[in-house]
Every structure is written in C-alpha cells, then in structure tokens.
Amino acid sequence: MQFSSPNSLPLKYARRLLLGLLLASLAGLAPLGGLAAEPQLLTLSHTTSLPDVKGGFDLMAADLKGMRLFVAAQDNDTVEIIDLKAGKWLGRLSELNDPKWIVYLAERQRIYVANGGTGACSIFDAKTLRPIKQLQFKEKANNLRYDPESKLLYVGVGNTFGSLGIIDTVKESIVGEILLANFPKQFELERNGQRIFVNVPSANHVAVVDRQTRKVIATWPIKEAKENVPMGQDAGSRRLFIGCDPGTLVVLDVASGKSVASVPIHTGCDGVYYDSQRKRIYISCGEGFIDVIKQIDADHYERTESIPTAAGAGTSLLLPTLNKLILAVPERKDGKAEIRGYQVQ
User: Which of 133, 151, 284, 332 could be a cystine partner for 316, CB 3.0 to 4.6 Å?
Assistant: First the structure.
C-alpha cells in the first residue's frame, strides 16, 4: 500500500496516519483486506475539481433546498461553495482563519463557520454570502451542532483547555459555556433526550453533558483504542459510533455507556455516518479508503467493503435524501483538490 509523502497531506492526517501505521505494525496487525467480492455499495458519480484550493479540508454542510454544498477548506482559509446538482464550483466565503466546521440554518438563512485560528464563529447571510457578525470564543473553535428546538448552537472550544460554547441563534450572541476535561472533538446531540456526547481524545473518554444543567454528568472511557475523534449516532438503537486510531470503530450503548462492539477500520478516520435506511455505517479514512460497516443488529457489526479513495481524504458528508456521500480530497503532489460524489447503492 503506497501513500503520498506526509508533507503533502494536511498535518492532522499525516500525524494520525504515521501513528496508526506504526502502532498497527508494532501490534502485528495484518492489512485490511480479504473481503468477499460484492457489488460496490458506493459508486463514484461525479468529481468537481478545485484547482485554486490549497491544502486540505475539514467539515461540510449542505443547503438541500438550494442544492449547495459548503466545504471548509481549512488550509485555504475559505469555505468553498459547490452546486450539488451540476457538480460545479459556485464561489467561496472568505475572511476566515482555519475554518473547521459549518452549520447552515435554512430557517434563518444563516451560515455559521467555526474558525480554528482565531476562536471566532463567523456568521454569513446565506443569500448574499456577506459576513454579518463574529462571535469570539477564548481559543480555537472547532465542531458545531445545532439544536432546532432550543435554537441553540453548540461550539467545541479549546486548545489549552476544553469547553462547549453556546450561541443563541435568534439573538446571535454567546449565552453560555460548559467546561470539559480538555478540548473536544466531534460531538452529538442526543436525538431522543437532553444529553450531549462529546469526544475528548486527550482524556480518551466520551463526556456526557446534561443540556439543562449545562454540566458533565458522566465520562465513558474508550478502552479499545486512542484518538477518539469522529462520532456518529444511531438514535433508534441508541448507539454511538466512535472512530479511533489506530484503525478501530467502537460502538457504545448510550443507556449504559458500555462498549458493545469494535470493528477494525483503516487509519485516519474523520467522518462517521450512519445510514438508517440501509443499516450501514460509512467511515471516510485519511489512509485513503471509505470503509462500509454492516449493522447486523444493535450489538453486532462487520466491515463489508473498503473503497479506495485518496490519501488524506478523511472529510465526508452523508446526504440521505439524495442517496449520496460527498468526499473532499485534499491537494496532492499528483493532483488538485476535488470534491467527489458517491452514489449510495
């Protein structure tokens, strides 16, 4: 298996790839492979080249009514806007500093962008694409999650410390903060409850936050692996999917906080999405694969397919209503940055 030089990858993937490969080698793990031959569950349907974008990407959001995709080009300090129907570049948001995560609010026609470089959350008008306001946090702003019932936007904050900032999207102001053991990575709002599940990789646990009291009420250790960064959720079965390195997907029962399963995956995972219609989990890995995991039942899982992509391509977004998985491929020595659309079969 060949890889581009780590110097050609976004730094976050280069470090995690090298660590994962080293640990896998020390543990004597065999390369992933030997899967049964089956029709591909994801097929490449279109590619949008982004020749003016330097470096790599972080996360994405979609305006499904307007068929627009917003992609955080973190190394380019921009958010790139793609026409989802035509697969063409439409424009960009600028005046950003290491954009990390994006939330599009259709009801307010607002785009929120977390800036890792400044700790600001930038607000744009979704119609005119003009900047409206910046809300400043103490340190690096990263992940964003929106609660449509309370109209609150939660922001992962921290570099030397950790917290969840809280934005009132009606007032467009910061209204609170929830302290954590250290800086957070991806997190999920419980869909049938009032908790927030937060990956805190330096503590190697999931912090459980009560949205009403705004306090951490439990911590669930991840024992199977380190670097618990991406997270997905199956609200129906009450399961959390935690992507870890070196190359492990851990499944947690949110009733008990206990691990019920773990599955080997490729290294550098950065996107974990649950397809409730097909009972599958799609995991985009910076090692250069999309792993497809079959959910046999709530406690049993198996990897059924690994689709080759490109080194460093860890950023993805599942669009269930369009039956598409979008993958962001960073600039490489042998190719320009691009957005790939995969049809879900």
Answer: 284
